[in-house]
Structure formats: C-alpha cells, structure tokens
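hey so i finally got around to running the thing on that chain from the lab meeting. sorry it took forever, my laptop kept dying and i had to restart like 3 times. anyway pasting the input first so we r on the same page abt which one it is
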Amino acid sequence: MSTQNTITSEILQQHGIDEATWSALKSSIYPGARDESVLMAVDYCRARQLDPLMKPVHLVPMLVKDAKTGKSEWRDVVMPGVGLYRIQADRSENYAGSGEPVFGDAIEGEFNGVRVRYPEWCKYSVFKKMPDGSVVEFVAREYWLENYATAGKDTSAPNAMWKKRPYAQLAKCCEAQALRKAWPETGQQPTAEEMEGKALDITDVTEMSSVDTTVRPPTNKTSLNNLISTRTQAQTDTDTKELSALLAGFTEKISDSQNIDEMDLLFSGGVWPDGKRRPGAVNTFSGEMLEKARDVYEMRRNEITDSDK
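ok and heres what got predicted. didnt touch it at all, straight out
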C-alpha cells in the first residue's frame, strides 16, 4: 500500500491539523495507511467530536464488492472500534457498567484441515440507568460460527486473529451488539472487530421520493421528529446519518423537557445543576443540522412559554 505523501500544508490547514498531529497520525496511529484514508478517519472523528489521536476508529483494508458491477477492489474503510461504543455509552451518562462475558461449551472443529478450539457462543451484558433510576440489563448472544472471519475467499479456515484469540474476538463482537441494543443512537455500523477479514458489499441505494417541505408547528415528540424529516437534507454520507441520530436524541430530550432553563442548557450548553459543564446543540452541530436543532428548540420553547401564560 502506497504511503507517498500527497497531502500539502494547505490541505492540512483546511482540515485543522497541524504538522505535529499529522506526523503522529501517520507514524503512530495509522502507520502505513494512505494519506487520503487518514484524512477520512480524521473527518469521521471530527464529525462525532472524537479525538483521532485516541484511535476510536480503525482503517480496515477490505475487499469491497459493488453490487451493481459485481467487481471487487481493496479499499480502506473507516470503522468504529468497540472502544468507540464504550465511549459513546459513557458519554450518555447512564452507562452502569457491564458484566463478564459468558461462553458456551468449547467445540473442537476442523476447517479445511485447520483444527480450532472455539466457544459455541458468547453472552454479554451491559447495564443502563433509566430515567426513573432503575437499572436495566441488555443482553446479546453471538455464535462463533456466525461471526468468525475466514483466511480467504476460498477457505473456511479462520484467519490468524480468530484462530489465535477465538474467545476474545467473539467477546468483542458480542459486547458491540449489546452496546448497540442499549444505545441504538450509537448507530448500526459494524465494528472493526466484527468486520476484520470479511468482504463488504455495496448494495443498491433506493432513490428517495420528494417530501413535503412545509414546516408546521409541532405539538408533540412525533411532530418534532417530523420537522427534522421535512427539511432538505444536503448531505447523505455516513457521517451525516450518524449526526442525524444525535439530532434525534436531542429532539427527544427537548420534547421531554418541561422547563425553559433545561432547554436552554440542552441547546446552548453550560453548567448543569449537578455542577458539570456539558456541550449543547450549538457545540455539536453546524450548518443545516444546527438549523434543524434551532427550529426544534425554538418551537418547543414557544410551546412551554405559551402554556405558562
């Protein structure tokens, strides 16, 4: 894989990266990766307010198959690590810990002449604190045969990682599934641990029909979410979809809020009653996303103001 430096200082400035950070990214965080791929990872982190130097996402070389042409080619794909899901769960401030992975019976199997001892399944639990103070357990169960990656297209033998660490790899996949169940706003993108050594298909994209762009005053949570849907979406890339999930979470919190002070904190950020400073929508979104958040905030704020009269 070519590592020729094709990134100029001007491009780094456009991405807000100084020379020292770029050097660390290239030499320590993503050694051997193409410059364009590293920038892609930085942009992904920037969109989700993550520190790329903490390596919350991975650049995974994958054989990508285009469903339309049937052709395959190797590409670097940005994928979250299970560590990113842990960060997002912790940021929610209702993460109440996790249990130890529980494994099923050990099985001795042979795959194209390669003998492997692996667990039949793994069960993983994470705990989430609910608004009423109760703690709910979310459980995921994953099977080794359904998750392991092969050493190549023409063999059923596991790759080196799944052969060397059959328990640990399955536990990571199971933990990622449990975190997605408990915090669906993290998104549904598979983690690097789940996709390592596997091929990726690009499926056909169905063109969306035009929608009614008339903005109507919301009166409940459903209509607030409808307001988001009716605005024109200028971007359709993966980062925007994940920001949309964050925007939906903001909408839900605004809808549940019963006082203006709390709404102001949700939108503008600041010091909360518990003494912690938290960012608001203005710190999270920009451009059209921020305008959507502002519409939801102002309309809900007007509702509360009118009800107090």
